[in-house]
Amino acid sequence: MNSPAGTTQSSSLLKPSDGRHPETCMHTEIHWFSATRATLLSSAVTILATSCATPPPVDPIQPSASALARVVSETPLGRIERGYNLEMMAIGSLCVSPDSRHVMWVQPEHGKQVAVVDGRKQTRYDWIDVPGRQSFSPDSQHWTYLAKQGDKVFAVVDGKETELPYYDQSLWARRLAQRVSGEHIAYAAKKDGKRYWVVDGQAQKTYDEVSGYFLFSPDGRHFIYPARQGKKDTLVRDGQEIGTYDFVEEIAFSEDGKRSAFVAGKGERPKEPWYSIAMGVLETGAALVALDPNIRHKPIIVDKGKRHVVLDGQEGPPYDSITSLTFSSEGRRFAYKARRGREWVVVIDSREEPRVFNYVTRQPIRFSPDGKRVAYVGGRGNELVAVVDGSEMVFEDIVEGPIFSPDGQHVAIVPIEGHVYYVLLDGKRGKNYYAGVRHLLWPAAKPVSVVFSPNSQHSVYWAEDKPSFVGPSVVPTSALKPVVSVVWDAIEGKIWDQIPGRIVFDSDDRFHYVAAKAGREGIDLCLVEERVP
Q1: pLDDT digits (tens, 9 = 90+) for 386-443
Q2: 161/322 Cα distance (integer angstroms)
Q3: Within 10 A of 424 (CB to CB), how many other CB atoms are there?
Q4: N or C: which end of the chain has fewer CB within 10 A?
Q5: Domains of the chain: which residue ranges?
Q6: Which helix (H) or strand (E) holds 279?
Q7: Dmax over Cα atoms in the chain, in whole Å?
Q8: Nearest to 108 by CA among 95, 121, 119
Q9: Per-residue confidence at 303, pLDDT binned at 50, 70, 90?
Q10: CB neighbours (10 Å) of residue 353?
């Protein structure tokens, strides 16, 4: 933590080519005047546009005067009360809305389960399934979950029950089996041995099998899903069959819903052989007996099929594997990752990039907001290669990025070197941060959550210091309590235990996020809003 800031670097890679508890979370305003905090990770990520109409760029290490006078207000969103089983279920199911203003979790109560939305308990049910990121609609105005009472299954939207007749409970564990987009609801049903999807109360055509994979377009006007009939997969869009293939994998819509793409396979569908399944059962059983939560079984998948992308009805070239279907935000450009043999490439606008990788990561392909720039990450040996506009930079590992600013002129990457990570912004390196084992109890949290202001002149992120030892009465199942703070122009704000979501800018000088603070009575969740006076 006390290691000095890294030296400034320059690289063409990063430059453009052209029930609430007010006693803990009081609704107050606090001024932060300290320029540094010895116990926190600190660094700047201040972005200033380079055009003549804006101030010159600021060194990302130096604190700004405006951040010194930042005003912080806190509004309680609810408390996760103490109790091992309650905390484990609540933390594991915790969801934050896309706009980072609402939270929802599920907790046990009197032998049943109850959903809690912004601190308010809902109706108790025998069983509740929170559908992950689909718990809130894209505009954050609606919330939903699946609930079971007796032999009936309901979709609960904004507290209102809608019974789901013939709900296919064989897909119960698959959270993708239910979708809510605004006021649209879809679920998989089973009747007389046949399976089908029901969309907004309308039963679709029956098939031998349907998977849990169903996709609404971002605007909610279209939907698409694959279904199995005999030995073939049929792709259905808006209730109409658009093609039959040996198997169908990944599907994607453009943001306006006008374009779609999917991966179609030819040959035998990938499968796990019986001996791999048997080994998985044995290893899972042994882990349960030994009370070991880390099940180390890696299934063996026999895959001899070929794949190609179908974009707007046009088929692309064959590959052994395809993933990461990505449209640019305006919908004009399209890219994906593909493997031929042991070599991976990135395909952009139907053309293979010349760079070859040994493997790819989960880091997505990213286009700048105007679609003119593109960035992606691939792996060679023990190193990761970040590619921006055709230029490469090599790192040991990458936590986050590359990320473009709204005007497309700035790029941020968060690499790892040894035991530290740092923010690299337009070639300038920030301070070293501790890169220890992440806190696994908060799966909703982003690694760093670097976010640019709308005018691209500033950015914020949250940084986590080395965990400190605390008693089990403060943090469940762990004696290591992380120290987290939001960094704005090299100035840290209030210390939190976790920030289980992303930071959202409201204007060029205002942003907000959800934060958590553990105490003796429980874990308090607050909506935190920060601004320059």
Answers
A1: 999 999 999 988 888 899 999 999 999 988 887 778 888 888 887 777 776 543 333 3
A2: 39
A3: 27
A4: C
A5: 1-6+19-96+406-533, 99-137+139-217
A6: helix 274-289
A7: 69
A8: 121
A9: low
A10: 17
